[in-house]
Specification:
The chain is mostly beta strands and 361 residues long. It folds into two domains: 2-12 and 20-199, outer membrane lipoprotein receptor (LolB), chain A (Clam); 216-355, 2-Layer Sandwich (Phosphorylase Kinase, domain 1). Helix content is 8%, strand content 41%. The chain contains four helices and 20 strands. It has a twelve-stranded antiparallel beta sheet with strand order 1-8-9-10-11-12-2-3-4-5-6-7, with no helix packed on it. Strands 13-14-15-16-20-19-18-17 form an eight-stranded antiparallel beta sheet, covered by helices on one side. Strand 18 and strand 19 (326-332) form a beta hairpin. Mean pLDDT is 91; it is low at 1-13.
Length: 361
């Protein structure tokens, strides 16, 4: 009866597998960013009147590939509820109660991956997040930070002392969030914690083979390589050289899927944005320079935490500090939109943005 009363009050008394090991001291140092990892996560949801527990089995091969199997119940889980996959230029999912999805997606890191390691210093320096205690989660040491909401989707919301809604996320020495604990008005909404984690395993190609059939026609969108001589470099914004340590993967023509474009009032799909993307890779890291006037509607419709910045050649510009990939973007004086985003620290992105060369007039 006591256990039921504690649950019904919404007050959290325990965190299975998670314990405080230090209340004070410097933050746990991130020592190595892995190129691959595999993990099993327990996910507890309290959004409804009853607790729901699922298991996520996750495989990531950076920077582009990921696979997430969601299963019913506690780890190791039972029946599979859904499968979500991503690869370069592809986002796919399968679920019993929905039509399979396989659409083109702009160059990005794996859909289930986070690179919060690159954003931590900026978020701390700007008082967006707060340094908290050191914990051990199922035997793995990690550092807790508090944000104004969950970071697993990417947004890093500002936390202010006394806020009733917050999310504590715990980052291990590899930059992986091994626990997120989301509270609102003293009630636990969701907890996700790694019960198993393997760093830099060798992962079979078959794990990342997309299982959902591809969409047909314009609904799917496209990501196609552009020959080097097909675009005059004087007509587009570009970096003067490949960033240090990176390799140039190529230039790509991107047409977004209509399935990824919000349709006001559920009406007839409008023409999706198109853009040209220069893609650079360095092991697990990714930098993308993306540009086209048609991106204006997309960026104006987004409501993401950001701050205004001044950038030569831009009428408006903003910095977005993100748990997946931070971004510098804006509307340019030549009536285009340019974005540079990636897994490097925001201050490095800003310096790259300053180096962007304008199209010749």
């Amino acid at each position: 009866m006591l256990a039921f009363s504690i649950w019904w009050s919404g007050r959290v008394e325990t965190r299975e597998g998670s314990k405080v090991i230090s209340e004070e001291g410097s933050a746990l140092r991130i020592t190595k960013i892995p190129e691959t990892y595999a993990g099993v996560f327990t996910v507890e949801s309290y959004a409804s009147d009853e607790q729901t527990i699922t298991t996520e089995r996750v495989w990531v091969r950076r920077p582009f590939e990921s696979r997430v199997e969601t299963r019913r119940g506690k780890p190791p889980g039972t029946a599979q509820l859904s499968l979500r996959q991503s690869a370069f230029g592809v986002l796919a999912s399968i679920a019993p109660d929905a039509r399979p999805l396989n659409i083109a997606a702009p160059p990005s890191i794996g859909s289930s991956d986070l690179r919060i390691d690159a954003a931590l210093k900026e978020a701390l320096d700007n008082n967006t997040i707060e340094l908290r205690e050191r914990r051990e989660v199922y035997g793995r040491e990690c550092q807790v930070y508090r944000a104004g909401g969950p970071v697993l989707a990417g947004d890093v919301e500002t936390y202010r002392t006394g806020d009733e809604e917050y999310a504590d996320f715990c980052v291990d020495q590899h930059g992986i969030v091994i626990e997120e604990f989301w509270m609102s008005d003293e009630k636990l909404l969701r907890r996700r914690a790694a019960v198993e984690l393997e760093i830099d395993p060798k992962l079979d190609d078959e794990l990342f083979a997309i299982e959902a059939p591809a969409e047909e026609g314009p609904t799917r969108g496209t990501v196609q390589p552009v020959p080097r001589d097909a675009v005059d470099p004087e007509e587009i914004w570009r970096l003067p050289s490949t960033p240090d340590g990176f390799d140039f993967l190529g230039k790509f023509a991107v047409i977004r899927s209509t399935a990824s474009v919000p349709q006001p009032g559920g009406g007839v799909p409008s023409a999706p944005p198109t853009s040209t993307s220069d893609v650079y890779v360095r092991g697990p890291d990714l930098i993308v320079v993306d540009q086209d006037p048609s991106l204006i509607g997309a960026i104006r419709s987004e409501d993401r935490p950001s701050r205004k910045i001044e950038l030569d050649g831009f009428e408006t510009a903003e910095m977005i500090v993100d748990a997946r990939m931070s971004e510098v973007r804006g509307e340019t004086e030549d009536d285009s939109v340019v974005r540079i985003y990636g897994t490097v620290p925001p201050d490095e992105l800003l310096e790259l943005a300053k180096d962007l060369r304008r199209p010749a007039k």
